[in-house]
Amino acid sequence: MPTVFGTAIKRREDPRLITGRATYTDDIRLPGLVHAAILRSPHAHARIRSIDVEKARRAPGVVAAYTGRDLQGRIGTVPTAWLLPDSDLKTPPHPVLAVDRVRYVGDGVALVVADSPARARDALELIGVEYEPLPVVVNQEEAMQPGKPQLHGEAPKNVAFHWKAGNGASEAFQQAEVVVRHRFVNNRLIPNAMEPRSAVARYNPSSGEMTLWMTSQNPHIHRYLLSGILGIPEHKLRVVAPEVGGGFGSKIACYPDEALVAFAARELGVPVKWTEDRRESFIATTHGRDHIQDVELAGRKDGTITGLRATVHASMGAYVSTAAPGVPTILFGLMLQGAYRIPQIEVDVYGVFTNTTPTDAYRGAGRPEATFIVERLVDLFARQIGMDPAEVRRRNFIPANAFPYDTPTGLTYDSGDYATALDKLLEALDYPALRRRQEELRRQGRYLGVGFSTYVEICGLGPSQVAGAVGFQGGLWDSATLRVLPTGKVLVYTGTSPHGQGEETTFAQIVAEALGIPVEDVEVRHGDTGEVYMGWGTYGSRTTPVGGSAVARAAERVVEKARVFAAHMLEVAQDDLTFEEGRFQVKGAPGRSVSFQDVALQAHLAWNLPEGVEPSLEASAFYDPPNFCYPFGAHACVVEVDRDTGEVRLERYVAVDDCGRIINPLIVEGQVHGGVVQGIGQALWEGAVYDENGQLLTGSLMDYALPKARFFPEIETHHTETPAPHNPLGVKGVGETGTIASTPAVVNAVVDALAPFGVKHLETPLTPEKVWKAMQDGRR
Ligand code: MCN
Fold first, then answer.
1. Ligand 1 centroid – CA 128 distance (Å)
2. Is the pLDDT of residue 2 over 60?
3. Is the pLDDT of residue 779 over 70?
4. Which residues, listed in sequence order, are joined to residue 619 by a DSSP beta bridge?
5. Range of the domain at 272
6. Is the pLDDT of residue 528 over 80?
7. Rounded to 5 degrees, what are φ and ψ at 712?
8. Residue 684: which CATH number?
9. Per the entry, which co-factors are needed (predicted)?
10. Inside any domain, residue 25
11. Best mutation site among 5, 285, 501 for ligand 1 pocket (most ligand atoms within 8 Å of CB)
């Protein structure tokens, strides 16, 4: 049997996806189905004087219409799942429909249910809402100034929380030979999964059971939270995530909308569907990033970094979304170490309410914001001391023999070899030749730039104890059950909920390898609380390190039980058996063996069971990792900036990533490609823009520039393999590495290209206009 772990087999998910045969939530058709539409506030901040839904109720095809007042006392508010200890976090109530005040453009105001989606939307126009507009604040720093509009009575100065970490950096700055200070604006991004959010709810009044199909990255968390909002006992609520067309973090949160759909289905006794349109998705699905970062780095002239300090204002938007408090704190502040031995670090984060769409996780969630700071500061430092940026990185790397490495922010990096990744990158780039070419081109008036990003990230979330200690209101272990059928085929149930990442393929590879059976004989099931007992979902690149480890453990247990049957069948002691390539073999007796399939059949036919052993071959495992995983790597981008137009042309992108042992190189490459493209999106094109009235100016795909395939050269991927020392597979996550690494690599490259103009920094996205202006200003 060829090994399947480490093999680039094609994703089994893809045929159904690329032939249009997958079933997404919006594809679900049920008898008697009616359709919901949500009226959303056009104001960023306003008092609601009155809402009149009577005309809408009488409109053709309308079944029902509800306002926030209609729902009061009948449905709960939207909860937050990450409470930050020692931070004084304020979590003002977030009603499912606004009652007397709206706080962002997109805040839900009324729900209409009708016999078709079009009629439901038409009826929204018949709802009369009298708004009294209030002053608006969209910038988080301004929101903390005296006299600015207050979003929530419970949060003076609009501060949702103030959080600190690190070991103090005053000494490093007092003794520094060189200090680099800067302000970075990590711009707000809009996730734009290919499939917008959607929900279908069906209630059975006779049993009191509710089934809710929804676009979820974590159905069990949604079941738990929604059961609270709806007052439906958890065992009567089944949450199913059918095919989910991407999430990128935006389908983790518990939103008001899905709760409303379930509420309406229960009220009306008919199934109800709601699907966001793209415009709605822009304003009503959480956004990402949005930091104002005041940062400084202390160092010596010889290139040693001695300290890093950051004060950050992170926008929470109008309410605290489900996982939002953890993003600019744990996933950001604790990672300001980067890949370097920085002895002193200090970070202060203010989470601030503004009249904007709530923010939450977006691919990388906190880690891109941290990596951007570290990698830009390293480049600014290199420039200031006149040293090559690759050399400054190398000098400060945590050395390979220093792992496990305790950081000043309280984490323990598990394993790493950062210098080897950089070496591989420099070789792939042919770095000296690249610098020579840059010089040559500059002489011809052409501006080539090369930018690095040597990153480390925290993922594989995560040890439940640590998560609990930092305020996450849940566990972060995961579960797997393996059911072996009489013919030796295997069903795998995982508590994770992949939505594009490909674990139906890679988890099958883990099992096929462990049991020595064909990979086609393994089927992976996920995303249904009715099928899978419990799990915590897919995000934070945890699915493989945590969920995959649970699968590996369960497979080991299946083999243990199979060994009992095999020993009985072969009439030898268990210790006399080896298990290789799917066969139990009597040691030293080549002719005497049984296959895994023989054992599976025996376990079920059960006419000759070992004494005291129950029939069947099934095992479960619950895996709680002892540590996070810390994938790392070295990325480089080569750009050429057009002197006349300011346009940035991507010439090369080279990624060296280390995600421990690789299960499927093809899938890993795909994840790196997608991640890199998303990170470059932020660097060059993407950015949410609000005007001073809180209107989202980039509220459609005409205004919000997503990356397009034709903008990219072939992304070159390479790997080093430093196994995670603490999980049974030696794997680290890879789902976010590309996004985390790539944004600063591109910005560093553009700034490097513009060095002759004296340009030291440009805020993302680096639009041609900004780049062109920087060249004009530099020349002056
Ligand atoms: N893998 C592997 N070997 C490794 C590590 C991973 O073969 N050493 C494989 C995995 O088995 C899986 C894939 O790579 O098939 C990604 O796995 P993992 O790193 O565990 O990440 P998750 O599955 O937990 O995915 C989450 C991550 C996040 S946080 C975001 S956001 C994101 C992403 O993945 N959103 C995505 N990738 C996405 N890809 C798609 N298509 N759609 C999204 O919404």
1. 45
2. no
3. no
4. 482
5. 31-134+196-246+251-284
6. yes
7. -110, 140
8. 3.30.365.10
9. Mo-molybdopterin cytosine dinucleotide
10. no
11. 501
